Amino acid sequence: MPPSQRLTVCVNQEVSPDKDVSVRLESDMPFIAEKPMYFDYKATISVGSNVIGSGSCANGHSFAYVSAETGFEQWLCILNPSDEAPDITATYYLVDP
Question: Which residue has the higher pLDDT, 23 or 43?
């Protein structure tokens, strides 16, 4: 990830459609992560929410629930406040139906 930049990952494109997952982000350097979610409620109201992984930098962040189900768009946003480029790994843990 480039220094002093933000990266956005679409969870729906990372996992198969209609999956529920947990996510663990790890890095060799501190970063900040958040999880915005956008969806249409009953196909009439477009809404969203946002969950921040932490209010400060860390080498790891976890999100207990992320949905890639139809009608939901979930994103992982990662901020690298450093002047160096860290390696960041995202691990998705699938939830069995």
Answer: 23
